[in-house]
Structures are given as structure tokens and as C-alpha cells.
TrEMBL record:
It is found in: Nucleus, Nucleolus. Residues 9-87 form the U3 small nucleolar RNA-associated protein 6 N-terminal domain. Residues 353-644 form the U3 small nucleolar RNA-associated protein 6 homolog C-terminal domain. Gene3D superfamilies: Tetratricopeptide repeat domain. It comes from the Eukaryota. Residues 2-36 form a coiled coil. GO terms for biological process: maturation of SSU-rRNA from tricistronic rRNA transcript (SSU-rRNA, 5.8S rRNA, LSU-rRNA). Keywords: Coiled coil, Nucleus, Repeat, rRNA processing. This is U3 small nucleolar RNA-associated protein 6 homolog.
Length: 672
């Protein structure tokens, strides 16, 4: 390995000498460059070099080459100030090319080592493209050979041939080869169409630059030079029938132009139809691809574009009329609140009515919650425009009708049995936005009592509506009102599982945090619920939330009493153990010895149930190293090594790294 590294360094001698002779780097700086390159070369020659080793080497060489360029410009300025000629001194030499050549060589080694890393290949390609390196075509061939199933590779190669080499035939051949290998790639089909239309536009622009008629390939009988000469020298001769010839010629020319077919538009239409047919055959179930084809068609001026537009819409309706997304897209073609522009009131109302007709047809054919959700979202977008600062003038007079129509949509969904949890919440929330609190309250009560009795989201919304209703006239509710809220929460909390009722429980604890009687009842309900379902290992922990509330409200003593009740349950969960350990550890760090004892007891109790939890052992060890003694820390460490089945995991985690600290503490104990 050392011989190879030395050989590669010796090959840099000419470059380094050149840098020194040109006064770009000093001898000391060159020695540092050699030192850094030797370090990187050894990293690349080890048995299993990492991808980061190659990237770090590339980053270093890139920065070094940038610095070389800046130093070279600085030296040239200094020579110019001294009045010396810089052409001979600073002409291109070996050091100007060595940096890029070395980076390309490192990239080549990297991609051969990590052939499957497509990101690395693209970095290699981008470097070659930016530096205009001659290996670009060879690298493209290699990446296509190793990754033929990646559509982006074919697109990149075709784009380089099309934009850089200006070789349309090669770009077309690459795209067609990519489509044969990846026929189910939407991006390939779309980019192929865009490439062909772009080429057609370039031909059309070239025709305009040459002074020919826009979009017409047929040439007149008189050449352009002859026509220009006649215009410049028309005073040299006088035709006998000047006026008649001119009028007759202009009429014939206008008649020809009316009869001629725009060859560019015709060819573009043919290309789009051919590619569209192939794409639909390869991807018959891709709705997004057909939408993109339609967008491209609308953005270009082609012959028979209206017929093609109708054909694509007909095909989409035939194949996707059973999908709610199709109807939503079709309606938003008529009027889209997200992208609408300022238009007249009459046109706006007409467009909205057309969109409504599409949605009405959709809910009759596909009566589903998804379809009604999209219908409602459309009108939510329309009503949101009415509340914005840039309110379209075309919607101002129709505000009340749109709001009432949206409410009818919600009611129709409920009547047809197509309402889901999200739609129900939207319905209630919309009533609240309109300030119709009583109607929102009645609707929430009805839905929670009938169809969505076990929905945590709807129960939470109902409780918030009730609280708003009770506190509408006064800031603090009465005892009777508190009792009604508690009964409502109690009914919801007993019906909804603890894992789904996080927001509901937090609201209940917040409302009754200062009501001791109701808070104790909530604790009783939580104990029963956790005894039935058990506590979680991670995520939201009801018992932990209650302990934190009690700690902030009543202090440490009451918090300990509460967490002991939870820990006495059959399956308290690891989350409550962590909360209690954190509480006691914080107190122990402030000098409370009893808290340290309690923390150790909690760790031992948790490890009885979770003895294979590596993080728990690590936290236990860290606590002992900070607040215990070296003997207790060593005991925890060796117990972990003995009990854990995967002892090798200790090496990869922080606990394994702390083994040296244990040995050091043992040595210090022996010396004492």
C-alpha cells in the first residue's frame, strides 16, 4: 500500500514544481499539500474505504484548485504592476490541468467502488459538465450501463446531447432507448415530448431568423436575395402594369397563405399524437401523465389542438371516471380557486356553476366520503377567497349563495350516508367560522351521539364547542356547567381508547387542573383505563402527563404518591418509568440523597421488565457516573454486559465507549 501511495505522490512532482516556479504556492505550502494528499491516499488504499473518504478528497482538491486559480490571477496582477509581460510567464502549463485531472481520477475510483450509488454518479456527471471535461460521453455510457432502469440517467444523457452537443439525433436515440428499457416511466415520456417540441420551436425560430414566413416550410419561387434586390432598386425600372401586378400578386400571395397548412403545427400535432399513443399504451393507469400531456397541449399552438384536447378528455373519462380525483380535476378545470385570476363577475359565476355541475354529477355517480370531501374543499377555497384581502370582484355578490351551497353539500353528505370524521369536523368548524355557535353545538351533539361516538377528534371538537358555549356570557363557568362538562368528558374518555385520546385528556386535565374534586376523578378514570389497556413504551403517556400536572400543581410529594399508583398497575409502561426517573434524577442532581435512592429503585424496577433495553442501561450507567461512585458505575456496566443478549451493541452505543472510564476509575481505586 505504501509503495502505491508513494508512486502516486511522485507523479505529482511536475505539477508541484510548476506551482513553485510560478510563485503560486510557497515551498512550505507545497509541503502541506503533499502531507494532506498522502493522508487522503492512505485513506483510499485501506481495505474498506468509505464513500466519505472519496468525497473529502474531492472537496479538498476542488478548494485547492480554486485557490490556485485565485493565486494565479493575483500573480498576474503583480507582474502587470511591475510592467513585466505575463503571456510567457502565465501561459497554460501542467498545473492548470492537473487539479481537474486528479478530481476526475478520484471520481472514477469512487464510482467503481460504489457502482450502485446513483447520487455519486450524478455528482461525477455534474463535475464533468461544469468543467467541460472530455470524459463526459464515456461517463454517460458507464452510468447507463450500470443503471439502465433509472429514468433520470436517460433524461440527463439526452439533455446533454441536446443542449451541449446540439445533437438532436443522438438525443432522440437516447430517449427512445430509455423508453424501451423503462416504458413505464412517466418522466421519460413527458421529457421526450418536450424535447421534440423544443426542437420544433428551434426550427421555427431559425426560419423566422432567416426571414421566411413563420411556420411555413414552402418557399416562394423568387429567392430572398432577388426579392431584396428588387425592393432596393425598384426605381430603376417601371413595369407596364405596376399597380395591377402588385394587387394581383398580393391577392395570390394572401390566397396561398390562407390555403397553406402550417407544417410546424402539423408536425407538432403528429409528434404529440404519436408519443401520447405510445405513453397510454405503456401506462394505461397513469392519470397524472395524461394531465401533463393535456397541459402541454394547452401550452402549444398545434393544428387540430381542439380535437386532440377532446380526445384526451374523452380517454381520461373512459379510463378514470370511477376515481374521485378525476372529477375533482375536471371541475377545477372550469374554476380553480387556488389559481384563479381577476375576471368579470358574470364569467366567474358561470365558471363556478359549471364546476358545481361537474361535482353534482360526480356525487351522483360516486357517492363517497372522498368525493364529498373534494366537493366541500372546492367551496372552502371559494369562500376563503371571499375573506382574503385580494377578494375577487367576481365573487363579492355571490358570497351568501356560495356559503349556503357549501352547507347544503355537508347536509347532502350526511343524508346520503357519505360523511366521515373529517367531513363532520369540517361541517362543525364551518358553523363556528360563521359564528353560528348553537347550530354547531347541536350538530356536534348529534354526530357524537349517533355515528361517531368513538371518535376522539369529534369528541374533542364537541367539548371545545360546549366550553365556548358555556363561557360565552361569563369567563368562569358555574358548578352546574362544570359538572356538565365533566360528564361530557367522562363519557368521551370512557368510550375512546387512551392511545387515541391524547388531545382529549390534555384538554380535560387543563380544564380541571384547579378543581381538586374533578381532577381526582380524572385520575381514577385514568387508572382504570391504564389497568385495562396498559401503558405505552414510547410516545404519549397519560400517566406521565398526570404526574407532570400534579408536580406543577401540588409539588413533589403528591407527584410521588400519584406515580406510585401508576407503577403499581400490571403494565405501567416504560414511558412512566422514564418520567419518574427524570423527576428523581433532577432532584438528586440538586443534592437530594433520597431522590438518588428513589431513582435507583426505579431503574431496578424498570430493568426487571425491560432488561434488554440498551438505552435504559446506558442512562442508568450515566447517572451512576455523575452522581454515584466508581464501584456502582462499574457494577451497572458489568451487569449490562452479562444480561444483554446482544453485547456487541454496547460497542456501538455510548455505553461501550465508557468502558475506558470504568477501567480508569478502577485503577484510581486501587491506587487509593
Amino acid at each position: 500500500m505504501a509503495d502505491v501511495v508513494q508512486y502516486r505522490l511522485e507523479r505529482m512532482i511536475n505539477e508541484l514544481d510548476d506551482l513553485e516556479q510560478r510563485m503560486i504556492f510557497t515551498r512550505r505550502e507545497i509541503a502541506e499539500i503533499v502531507k494532506q494528499r498522502r493522508k487522503f491516499e492512505y485513506r483510499l488504499k485501506r481495505p474498506s474505504p468509505l464513500k466519505e473518504d472519496y468525497l473529502a478528497y474531492i472537496e479538498y482538491e476542488t478548494q485547492l484548485d480554486s485557490l490556485r486559480g485565485l493565486r494565479k490571477k493575483s500573480v498576474m496582477r503583480e507582474l502587470q504592476k511591475q510592467g513585466l509581460k505575463t503571456n510567457k510567464k502565465m501561459k497554460k502549463s501542467v498545473s492548470d490541468f492537473a487539479g481537474v485531472r486528479r478530481i476526475v481520477d478520484i471520481y472514477r475510483l469512487a464510482v467503481m467502488r460504489f457502482k450502485g450509488d446513483i447520487e455519486l454518479w450524478f455528482r461525477y456527471l455534474e463535475f464533468c459538465r461544469e468543467r467541460r471535461h472530455g470524459r463526459m460521453k464515456k461517463v454517460l455510457a458507464q452510468v447507463i450501463r450500470f443503471h439502465p432502469k433509472v429514468p433520470g440517467v436517460w433524461i440527463y444523457a439526452a439533455a446533454w446531447e441536446f443542449d451541449h452537443n446540439l445533437n438532436v439525433e443522438a438525443a432522440r436515440a437516447i430517449m427512445q432507448s430509455g423508453l424501451r428499457v423503462c416504458p413505464t416511466s412517466e418522466d421519460l415520456w413527458i421529457e421526450y415530448l418536450r424535447m421534440e417540441l423544443t426542437f420544433l420551436n428551434k426550427l421555427k425560430a431559425r426560419k423566422v431568423a432567416l426571414g421566411e414566413n413563420v411556420g411555413i416550410l414552402a418557399h416562394d419561387q423568387i429567392s430572398a436575395d432577388e426579392k431584396q434586390w428588387r425592393d432596393e432598386n425598384k426605381d430603376l425600372y417601371m413595369p407596364l402594369n405596376e399597380e395591377g401586378e402588385h394587387n394581383e400578386g398580393s391577392d395570390i400571395e394572401s390566397e396561398k397563405s390562407r390555403k397553406k397548412i402550417d407544417k410546424f403545427q402539423e408536425q407538432g400535432f403528429s409528434i404529440l399524437r404519436t408519443i401520447y399513443s405510445g405513453a397510454v399504451e405503456a401506462l394505461p393507469s397513469s392519470f397524472s401523465m395524461r394531465k401533463k400531456f393535456l397541459e402541454i397541449l394547452d401550452a402549444t399552438d398545434l393544428v387540430n389542438s381542439e380535437e386532440m384536447h377532446k380526445e384526451i378528455l374523452s380517454d381520461i373519462k373512459r379510463d378514470f371516471s370511477t376515481q374521485p380525483g378525476y372529477w375533482d380535476w375536471l371541475a377545477r378545470l372550469e374554476y380553480n380557486p387556488a389559481t384563479t385570476q381577476e375576471i368579470s363577475e358574470e364569467n366567474t359565476h358561470t365558471q363556478v356553476e359549471k364546476a358545481v355541475q361537474v361535482y353534482e354529477e360526480a356525487v351522483e355517480l360516486l357517492p363517497s366520503a372522498i368525493m364529498f370531501n373534494q366537493y366541500a374543499n372546492f367551496f372552502m377555497g371559494v369562500t376563503a377567497l371571499l375573506k382574503g384581502e385580494n377578494k375577487p370582484s367576481g365573487l363579492a355578490s355571490q358570497s351568501a349563495s356560495y356559503i349556503s351551497h357549501l352547507l347544503r353539500v355537508y347536509e347532502k353528505a350526511e343524508t346520503m350516508g357519505c360523511i366521515d370524521e373529517d367531513l363532520a369536523c369540517q361541517h362543525i368548524s364551518f358553523y363556528l367560522q360563521l359564528g353560528r355557535l348553537d347550530e354547531a353545538r347541536k350538530l356536534a351533539e348529534k354526530l357524537c351521539r349517533e355515528k361517531f361516538s368513538s371518535s376522539a377528534q369529534l369528541c374533542l371538537l364537541r367539548v371545545s364547542v360546549e366550553v365556548r358555549h358555556l363561557t360565552r356570557d361569563s369567563t368562569s363557568p358555574s358548578k352546574a356547567e362544570l359538572l356538565s362538562i365533566f360528564e361530557l368528558l367522562k363519557d368521551a374518555l370512557t368510550r375512546v381508547s387512551t392511545s387515541e385520546a391524547e388531545s382529549l385528556w390534555l384538554m380535560a386535565l387543563k380544564i380541571f387542573a384547579n378543581q381538586k374534586h374533578y381532577f381526582e376523578k380524572l385520575v381514577e378514570i385514568s387508572v382504570k383505563s391504564l389497568a385495562k389497556d396498559g401503558g405505552p413504551e414510547n410516545g404519549f403517556s397519560l400517566s406521565s402527563a398526570i404526574v407532570n400536572f400534579v408536580l406543577q400543581k401540588d409539588g413533589v410529594r403528591h407527584a410521588r404518591d400519584v406515580y406510585k399508583r401508576f407503577l403499581a398497575l400490571p403494565h405501567p409502561g416504560l414511558a412512566i418509568y422514564r418520567t419518574c426517573i427524570e423527576l428523581e434524577s433532577n432532584l438528586a442532581s440538586n443534592g437530594d440523597k433520597d431522590s438518588l435512592v428513589n431513582a435507583r429503585k426505579l431503574y431496578e424496577s424498570a430493568l426487571k421488565n425491560y432488561d434488554q433495553n440498551l438505552r435504559l442501561w446506558r442512562d442508568y450507567y450515566c447517572m451512576e457516573t455523575k452522581m454515584g461512585t466508581s464501584e456502582t458505575a462499574s457494577a451497572v456496566y458489568w451487569r449490562a454486559r452479562k444480561i444483554l443478549k446482544d453485547s456487541s451493541a454496547l460497542v456501538t452505543q455510548d455505553l461501550g465507549a465508557l468502558e475506558s472510564l470504568v477501567s480508569k476509575s478502577c485503577v484510581s481505586c486501587r491506587t487509593d
